[in-house]
From TrEMBL, chain A:
Located at the 30S-50S ribosomal subunit interface and binds directly to 23S ribosomal RNA. GO terms for cellular component: ribonucleoprotein complex; ribosome. Keywords: Ribonucleoprotein, Ribosomal protein, RNA-binding, rRNA-binding. Belongs to the bacterial ribosomal protein bL19 family. GO terms for molecular function: mRNA binding; rRNA binding; structural constituent of ribosome. InterPro entries: Ribosomal_bL19 (IPR001857). This is 50S ribosomal protein L19, chloroplastic.
Amino acid sequence: MASKLLPQALIITPRNPHQCPQKNMGFSTRVSGLPSSFKSGAPTSVSRVPSFSIGLNLNPMFSAPPKRAFFVRAESNPEAEGETNAVAEVTENVEEKEEVDVEESTQVEAEVQSEEAKPPRKPRIKLGDIMGILNTRAVEASEKERPVPDLRTGDIVEIKLEVPENRRRLSVYKGIIISRQNAGIHTTIRIRRIIAGVGVEIVFPIYSPNIKEIKVLKHRKVRRARLYYLRDKLPRLSTFK
Amino acid sequence: MAAGLASKWSLGMRFYSLIVGRSLLGGLNNNLSSLLGTSNGITCSHSLSLQQRTFIQMRTVLKVVDNSGAKKVMCIQALKGKKGARLGDTIIASVKEAHPNGKVKKGKVVYGVVVRAAMQRGRCDGSEVKFDDNAVVLVDKQGQPIGTRVFGPVPHELRKKKHVKILTLAGHIA
C-alpha cells in the first residue's frame, strides 16, 4: 500500500512548496476523504513508479481541461467542509477505490499545479524596447572583445585603426574629441587635428572592430559638449604633437 | 457650389495662416538675434549657423596643392556624379590664378583630382573624414599628376580610385 501511495507523494511534494496551503489541504482532504491511512507529506525512498502513465490512463475520465480545473475547485470546497468528517474516519480498507481516486486527483493536481506555475512568468518584451535590447547586447559583445574607456568631449586621444586598404600597419590618429554622439552600437566620436597645416576631422564609431586601441592622453577643460568653435579659432588650439 | 466655396475659403485661410506664421517667425528671429549677444538660447541659432557642406560643382574655386604652377582653379565640370564631385573624384577646371613661371598658365583648362573636400566622405567601416578646405591636384588626361610634389594630407580614398602616384607623392595620408 505504501509503495503505491508514496509515488503520488513524490510527484506532489516537490511541487507543493509553492502551493497555497488551501489546495494542499483540499488535496489531502480529498484523499483522506476516502477511508484510507494515506498521510501526505511523508516522502521516503520508494521505487519509482511511472505515475504519469497512471494519470494518462485516466484521460478518458476527464473530457476537457477547463472542466478539470472546475472539477478541482468544486472538489476542494466540499472537501474542505468534509475535512473534519474525513479525518475522523481513517481506515485501511478500500484500497483500489482510494487508488483510483488518488490517481484522478493526481491528474487534477497536476493540472492545477501547471496552472499555478504559470503566473510567475517573464514579462513580455514590448515592441518599442527591442532596439534598445539589441543595442545593449551588441555593445556588450563589443566590450567583451575590447573594452572602451570612458570618452568625453575635450579628451585628447590616440586611436589605432586597422584600415583594410592600408593592411600593413595600423593607422594612428591623434586629436581632440570635439563631439560624442550616443547611438547605441553606433556611438561615434569626432576627432579634430591639424595635420600638415590643414584641419582634419574624422568621425569614428568607437565600437567598431577595426579600432584596435583607444588611449586617452590628456584632457582639456572645456565647458561645452560640442567644440565646433575650434573650427574658427587659431590652428594652434587644434594642434597636437 | 457650397463645397467649392468652402474649398476657396480654406485656401484663403491657409494663405492667411502662412503670412501670419511668417511674420511670427520674423519676430522670433529678431528676438533671437538680439538674444545672441546675451549668450542665451544657442539652440535655434546653432542650427542656422551650422554649414551644410556640399559637393564641388561648377564655379567652385579650389586650392591647388602641387607644384604644377597653378594656385587657384575654378571647377567647370564634375566628371562623375549628377550633383557634383566629392573627395577622390576628377574634375575639369580652369586655372584662375597661377605662379609666374610654372607648367600651367592662367586660363588653361585642366583636369584635377579632388584630394581634400569640406564635405564629409563616408568610409566603409562607418567612419567619416572631412577637411577644412577644398583642394585639388592637377593631372593629365591619363590621371598622372603634372606636378612632382603634393602638399598637405591626402585621404585613403585615392587608393581605391587608382591614384596611387598621388599617394606616393603625398607627405601625409589622412
